[in-house]
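Course assignment 3, question 2. Fill in each field.
Student: A.L.
Task: Predict the tertiary structure for the chain below.
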Amino acid sequence: MEPTSYKAEDLFKWVTQAGEEFLLLDVRVNEEFDRFKVEGPFLPDMVNVPYVEFIEHEEESVAKVPAAEKVRIVCAREGSARYVAEILVNHGFKDVRFLEDGIKTWGNMLAPKLVASDDGYKLFQFIRPGKASCSYGLISNDEMVLFDPSRNVDFYQTFAENNGARIIKSFETHLQADYISGSKQIAADRGAQILGHENDFKDATFKYQKIVDDQVYSFSKGGPEIKALHMPGHTPGSTSYLIDNKYLITGDTVFILSIGRPDLGGKAEEWSKLLYHTLKTKIAELEDDLVILPGHYMDWSEANPFRVFSDTLGNIKNKNSDIYSISTETEFIGFIKNNMRPQPEVYAEIRKVNAGLLEVDAEEQEIMDLGKNECAASAQKAS
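Answer field:
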């Protein structure tokens, strides 16, 4: 029996639905595996045995692979996974498959989830499991607007076309540091308008519309209102978008199990003060039944039964009472500093790419853009 391939979309289905039992074998080098690995609520078993070990010590390496009816292999580019798959088949494993085009396809894959279908519009969350991030799409009539799109622009364009819509606007909640934005490419390909706050995008080399706090943006044929709420802290220009007075796309300001860290710009104390003010004024004024749609998640336990990352603001405040109950600016700054940890070095370069200040080719973008986000203030304690 020859090993066959599978796609990242297949892997997403297997790790997010109960009942699919398999062994996931990652054959990348240990350092790459430790930096970034496949995650999912129903990932049954996973083991890392680098492919170079199969080359040098085949029998010993095969012995490290637990017996399983189904083995699914991932590697950096595909070739190593295919090579190991052939070895396992030769050693008696029956159902062995390798990931097409390697781990980058998992890193770039987007899974659409319907959040709401109200009053003639549809709101979608696009989960990017390889980055633990979420972008959003809002469709009204034959128009679609995006929020924080990733660089997988072909996906968004195809999704819009399949829903009888064209992309007209791309809203940025802030200048992203952990992944390369797709807004600039979408604007170039489809003539869509980019919108962002001047505090973050004042040095951008591309054309964008400056977001105005409390201003309402709309579609050309009516549709739900999109209200911009400037919420500085994670970055000085961080902005959330209130859709139809029901759903708040928060970017990296409000997470389900944390808040966005304000130290990524190298101004921890200054930006912590901004974030504290945002928590105590802007967010405190919002209704508790408002549905929060975050830009990132830390763990799959945050997803609801429909595998959508959302929760009400009231529930989020209760889950993060240790943060929202902080009563002084000094105490809040102390909380941030106690949880600070080094940010990935590549974040500084990604900011430049997203501002149009640095041009890198597609291959380099793939390298820069790979890996889980490090944007939550309390995702882990500082070491």
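Instructor remarks: The longest strand covers residues 222-230. Residues 197 and 211 are 5 Å apart (CA to CA).
Grade: pending
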